[in-house]
Design goal:
With about 350 residues, this protein is α+β, with helices and mostly antiparallel strands. It has eight helices and ten strands. About 50% of the residues lie in helices and about 15% in strands.
């Protein structure tokens, strides 16, 4: 092609048609320039598409992490609410408290959740946005603000209740913030404290100083709830902003199954797998035969991500929530991780 154009230029020049030669030469230069501009534009378009694709890939991971943060915060809120309910019962209706559980519950009141280990800050380091893209800039600003907010602790480290229990020289039970409260504290060893320990704690309830300590603890926990609600609101806001920017964003969960003594495996180690039927809504389904017992949903063959529930045959899922008590039968199961709901639809065999 270059030789062809060169022959035309040579022919025009040799014939003395200088004006035509110059016009042709300028036209050829213009074509070359236009070609270069088109090539640059295509390259810029490809780079922009690649950058935007990488941006969305990281954004999808962030979306999943924020969803996990929201679930963890909801769990923390649930436990703090339980602590407030215990305090209210101790102050207003102490006769409703199981005496054997009383010392455990008092120690439990001062427990707090460990810091929320969100991966948001780590992922934000990989979110390369275009400063000239106003939507990306606004989204990044909101996500960065969320990343800073979630690193702040939700409550103080006061031990108003434990200080009284220390004076009674009571032994420390093995309790954790989330697990010990599951299934209304049925997992607590009710034989850990003897009758003399229980009598001491019952006597402690009659103390006006201790009653004031309970009220102070309640006030702190109520303030914690306000803070937690604010962060949960931020998770919802940022999830919505991501959805507005990237309507096809989805939760990156995989290998979801059912585990528990109510499944055919009759254990808490091996899953009954479910099938992903709606990727965009993170809906998992399957058919299963159950016996009377308990089960949970979880991702993979480990407990890093698992969901319990509050009712049967349908209800809301809670990250690390209570075991779901189920009844025997053949069921079609629907788990919606976007809406945080589940259904066990009984089948007629």
């Amino acid at each position: 092609m270059i030789k062809f154009f060169r022959k035309i230029r040579y022919s025009l020049f040799s014939k003395g048609e200088t004006r035509r030669y110059l016009k042709y030469a300028f036209g050829e230069i213009a074509l070359v320039v236009i070609g270069i501009l088109i090539a640059l534009q295509l390259n810029n378009w490809n780079e922009s598409r690649k950058t935007n694709s990488e941006y969305k890939a990281v954004l999808q991971q962030i979306y999943t992490v924020i969803d996990q943060d929201s679930e963890n915060l909801t769990l923390i809120r649930h436990q703090v609410t339980k602590q407030i309910e215990i305090i209210d019962n101790l102050v207003q209706n102490p006769e409703n408290i199981n005496n054997k559980l009383l010392p455990h519950l008092l120690f439990y009141l001062d427990l707090e959740s460990s810091d929320l280990n969100s991966e948001i800050s780590y992922l934000l380091g990989y979110l390369k946005f275009n400063p000239k893209n106003q939507k990306q800039s606004n989204l990044n600003k909101s996500l960065s603000s969320y990343g800073k907010a979630i690193r702040v602790g939700y409550s103080g480290s006061r031990k108003d209740i434990t200080s009284f229990l220390d004076e009674l020289n009571l032994p420390y039970p093995s309790i954790t913030f989330t697990y010990s409260a599951l299934n209304d504290y049925q997992n607590i060893d009710s034989t850990f404290f003897d009758d003399s320990d229980i009598k001491l704690t019952l006597k402690l309830l009659e103390s006006s100083k201790f009653q004031n300590a309970l009220k102070s603890s309640r006030s702190i926990k109520f303030t914690s709830l306000v803070f937690i609600d604010n962060i949960i609101s931020l998770t919802n806001t940022n999830k919505r902003l991501i959805q507005d920017y990237y309507p096809d964003v989805k939760l990156l969960y995989s290998d979801i199954g059912l585990v528990g003594d109510a499944t055919q495996h009759n254990n808490w180690t091996k899953n009954i797998p479910l099938t992903l039927t709606n990727e965009s809504q993170a809906i998992w389904e399957g058919d299963i035969i159950l016996s009377d017992g308990s089960l949970k949903f979880r991702e993979g063959e480990n407990w890093n991500f698992n969901w319990g529930g509050d009712a049967f045959p349908s209800g809301n899922t809670y990250s690390y929530g209570d075991d779901i008590k189920v009844k025997s039968g053949s069921y079609h199961v629907i788990l919606n991780l976007s809406e945080k709901t589940y259904q066990f639809i009984k089948q007629n065999i």
